[in-house]
Amino acid sequence: MFRVLIAEDDPDIQELLQAYLAEEGYDTVPAMDGEQALERFHEGRIDLVLLDVMMPRLDGYGVCRAIRAESDVPIIMLTALDGEAHQLKGFDLRIDDYVTKPFSMPVLLRKVEAVLRRTTGQGGSRQIVYRELLLDLDGYAAYVGGAKAELTRREFELLKALLQNQGRVLSRQALLNRVWGYDFYGDERIVDTHVKNLRKKLGGDYIETIRGVGYRVDREHQA
User: Fold this and answer.
1) Residue 207 is inside which H or E element, if any?
2) What is the C-alpha R_g of the chain?
3) pLDDT per residue over 1-20, tens digit each?
């Protein structure tokens, strides 16, 4: 299991990152400021660092310099500073990627996977199999009875969220947060539209509607 140090002083973003990464099978180590981030880094093995720039006590650039003085662990910077000069400063410090806020959680997770594959040589094919469905997480493809289903990115992420939480009812708001991101402020009925499209493309009765609550994939039907 990969261990990810999350250096982020915003408690809401910190909590969100921990939840998403834990669902994907990562072990997370939180830090709420720069000095604590270095303390956590030295307490045990860290495979990747998600590093906010604007942190108290020691900013992300300072943390990066200290880590790079002793380690080549992959670092992804998370920041609201989107100017070219800020990005170049990060890359000059040998970071592996630079993600600006607000960011899409599914896209960030893909970047984490890509950086870990590139730097560790690990991360073989990951799949979810459910009845006639096969979800290839690395290939970003879905198959029904062996035939490829042409899903949009949102449909793929929606299906993945439901399959990873078999037996649990996910509300529309929960699905919005997971698939569209914490900064989405549109109509939650967009989830209904995407579920309707998914059902058409997948066929069968894979996704159950829990009236007044949300949607579920029933664990009892798992192959």
Assistant:
1) none
2) 19
3) 688 999 999 999 999 999 98
